[in-house]
Amino acid sequence: MERRIIHIDMDAFYAQVEQRDNPDLKGKPVIVGGKSRNRGVVATASYEARKFGVHSAMPTARAHQLCPDGYYVSPRFDVYKDVSSQIMSIFKGYTDIVQPVSLDEAYLDITHLVRKDLGASQIAAFIKRDIMTATNLTCSAGVSYNKFLAKIASGMNKPNGLTVIHYENVEQILAELPIGEFPGVGKVTEEKMLRLKIMNGKDLRDKSELELIELFGKKGSSLYQKARGIGSDIINMDRVRKSIGKESTFSHDVQDEAFILQTMRTHSEKVALKLQDLNKVSDTITVKIKTSDFESHTKQTKIIDFTDQADTIYNTAVLLYTDLKEEFNNIRLVGVSVGNLKNKVYENLTIYDFL
Ligand code: TTP
Ligand code: MG
């Protein structure tokens, strides 16, 4: 079955974050990277700076020649990592099938979310909107039926683009695509291609698979396929989380009710924060206790509405605990967990959000 893959990539990521956090840099050529004139390298440049020919991996000295009036800024990796967690969490609100590629980039399989009244490009637009709301940053989205086409699509209308590559257009788009823009064609391969007069997808398509294997080794087959729009649609995702829990073991038997309740409250709060962080909600709450003989006992219940709220989790946990403690009183461990997780954003959307 044909899949629907979205590729999201933040625009001029580090530079855009710097412009967001320092209004003086808005609309200016901003170059983020090592500032040293003899050793520094450019991490990225704002689109304003790119007009001067500045780009990633260029020596800072060279950037100064091309763009002497640019604003040179050191990277703040902590901030970029925080933004990255924010966007990854937004993706997970839509689907578990997420493959992060780098801090600012991921593939999502949203095949199962597509409906008659909700196309893949609309879902991509919602994700772009959510990223803007949460981070005040733009990204570009590409939609297609495999990963490499989705990636090409996200690069086609940067910045702030949303591009769909449909099956009917693949041949033409690939034919005209400069060879260096094929995912998987790095600098070295690109130079070799250009020497061989393979300038674009059309030239690549004119080569036989055997020729390409002879020229590029193992990579040859995948290049042959890419020229024809064939590529993987399998998302290599992180393990899907089934539950979230917190527990603590005491060094001695505890009978102090207030202390146990306080521990459960802390656990409920941590579980709720984790749910919120992952953009998940749960309707199944479990309390576990261990007694001094090291036997575990659990009690579980379903609540009416899915939640990510500490109060709801705690109140339910207290009821479960009250049931359990009738039987046992020497408590060594108490834990609170939530299961049957589902994604928060998508499942809460109504048709009105799609209009
Ligand atoms: P990219 O997504 O490749 O580039 P970008 O987001 O800056 O610009 P755009 O996607 O709009 O073309 O890389 C993401 C970040 O990774 C980039 O902001 C800085 C960092 N990076 C480096 O530090 N060195 C590099 O050589 C590259 C390519 C990126
Ligand atoms: Mg990017």
UniProtKB/TrEMBL annotation:
Substrate discrimination, annotated site positions: Y14
Catalytic reaction equation(s): DNA(n) + a 2'-deoxyribonucleoside 5'-triphosphate = DNA(n+1) + diphosphate
Enzyme Commission code: 2.7.7.7
Main subcellular localisation: cytoplasm
InterPro entries xrefs: DNA/RNA_pol_sf, DNA_pol_Y-fam_lit_finger_sf, DNA_pol_Y-fam_little_finger, DNA_polymerase-Y, DNApol_IV, PolY_HhH_motif, Rev_trsase/Diguanyl_cyclase, UmuC
Positions annotated as active site in the UniProt record: E105
Molecular function terms from GO: damaged DNA binding; DNA-directed DNA polymerase activity; magnesium ion binding
GO cellular component, one term: cytosol
Cofactor annotation remark: Binds 2 magnesium ions per subunit.
GO process terms (BP): DNA repair; DNA-templated DNA replication; error-prone translesion synthesis; SOS response
Cofactor(s) essential for the protein: Mg(2+)
Family annotation (PROSITE patterns): UMUC (PS50173)
Domain UmuC: 5-186
Keyword Cell membrane tagged: no
Subcellular location: Cytoplasm
Keywords, ordered alphabetically: Cytoplasm, DNA damage, DNA repair, DNA replication, DNA-binding, DNA-directed DNA polymerase, Magnesium, Metal-binding, Mutator protein, Nucleotidyltransferase, Transferase
Quaternary structure note: Monomer.
Record function comment: Poorly processive, error-prone DNA polymerase involved in untargeted mutagenesis. Copies undamaged DNA at stalled replication forks, which arise in vivo from mismatched or misaligned primer ends. These misaligned primers can be extended by PolIV. Exhibits no 3'-5' exonuclease (proofreading) activity. May be involved in translesional synthesis, in conjunction with the beta clamp from PolIII.
PANTHER family registered for this protein in UniProt: DNA POLYMERASE KAPPA (PTHR11076:SF33), DNA REPAIR POLYMERASE UMUC / TRANSFERASE FAMILY MEMBER (PTHR11076)
UniProt family annotation: Belongs to the DNA polymerase type-Y family.
Designated name of the protein: DNA polymerase IV
